[in-house]
Amino acid sequence: MKSKKFWTYQFKSFLPIFIFYLLLLGLIKLLATLYYLPKSFFWDTFRFSFPLLVIWFLVNSYQSHKRVQVITKEKGISVNNPIEAQLLHNYQLHQRTAECTIHDLNNQQKEQLDRIEMYSHEIKNSLTSLQAATENSDPVPSKTVLRAVFQANYHLDMLLNDERLAMTKNDLDFEWINLQKLIIEILKQNSSLFISRQLVPQLDNLSNILVLTDRKWLRFCINQLLSNAIKYSPNDSTIYFNWVNNNLQIIDHGIGIKSSDLPRIYDNGFSGKNGHQTIKSTGMGLYLVKKISSQLNFSLKISSKAGHGTNANLHFPGNNVKKG
User: Fold this and answer.
1) Which of 21, 47, 80 finishes a domain?
2) What is the tens place of the pLDDT at every residue in 108-158?
3) Which domain holds residue 189?
């Protein structure tokens, strides 16, 4: 943009401010006359304020001119005045924001597709192992069928809840839930695993405890924490469900978690060294539970020591707990 044209539009844009300044000086002159103030009062006001106004105008004009030059040089776009330059600048900011948003959405979509592929692969593995068992043994042992069906159902449930989690804000139904009854329902659902592994559940201090939250998502969280406890517990051991100071504790005496793994157990896809030593894991369970708890009214904390088991805590705020 030519300098002459730039300064013409710059003066035009500055004109309202200059008119306001003159009106303000006129008001000061009027007040000085009405109150018989010395003439030097008005002229001192003008003498000290006008240079500041000029300096502000020059600095503002310089910055506008530099901005116009940068925009014109980078984009090769011709602008005719500072207003057009500012509009173009704003447009480019919005464009960059939109590009970042699209980039983030593409990354989220890629992660989602990767998770779907991972879950599908695990389900396929379960069905393949079952198919291999039918080819090598007739009849197939019920434990083998049960294990394959449980693993397929587990990963399918993870996949569905991973998809639903994106819509939880519009799909929440808070109610008072009897915690002991809910845990018993979950234990019945997993009873065949307890029997096959000779595991014993023990419930303490849960009688008449009511918590206010979403039943579906709380059930998923407890079931996921229980699944981890079952997977990593030795046969013929006890899994504890305790209620202590508004905390639901799910405690096992399994292989535990190495201290080096603890900071990353909530990461997407992280399964840890101990997890790889026993059962193949997607590393999504604790990630989803942590994500759900952050969107609801309870929190998750895991404490563990390698070789000494794991304590999973769901903490509920006091005003969301009562006895019924």
Assistant:
1) 80
2) 777 777 667 766 766 777 777 777 777 776 676 777 777 777 777 777 777
3) 172-324
Count: domains in the chain: 2
- Quick check: is 312 in a domain? yes
**Pseudo-torsion of CA 167, 318, 182, 263, nearest 10°?**
60
Residue ranges, the chain, pLDDT below 50: 1, 275-279
Phi, psi of 202 (to 5 degrees): -135, 125
Collect contacts of 269-274 with beta carbons under 8 A, ≥24 apart.
269/118, 274/232, 274/306
Q: What is residue 279's predicted lDDT score, i.e. its pLDDT?
A: 46
Domain CATH code at residue 256: 3.30.565.10
**Is residue 165 assigned to a domain?**
no
pTM metric for this prediction: 0.60
Determine, yes or no, domain membership for 147. Answer: no
Q: Do 198 and 324 lie in a common domain?
A: yes
Give pLDDT tens digits for 61-87.
Answer: 888 777 767 666 655 555 555 666 666
Last residue of a domain, one of 46, 80, 114: 80
Residue 30 lies in a domain: yes
Q: Which residue has the tokens 């981890």?
A: 228
3-state secondary structure the chain: CCHHHHHHHHHHHHHHHHHHHHHHHHHHHHHHHHCCCCHHHHHHHHHHHHHHHHHHHHHHHHHHHHHHHHHHHHHCCCCCCHHHHHHHHHHHHHHHHHHHHHHHHHHHHHHHHHHHHHHHHHHHHHHHHHHHHHHHCCCCCHHHHHHHHHHHHHHHHHHHHHHHHHHHHHCCCEEEEEHHHHHHHHHHHCHHHHHHHCCEEEEECCCCEEEEEEHHHHHHHHHHHHHHHHHHCCCCCEEEEEEECCEEEEEECCCCCCCCCHHHCCCCCCCHHHHHHCCCCCCCHHHHHHHHHHHCCCEEEEEECCCCCEEEEEECCHHHEEEC
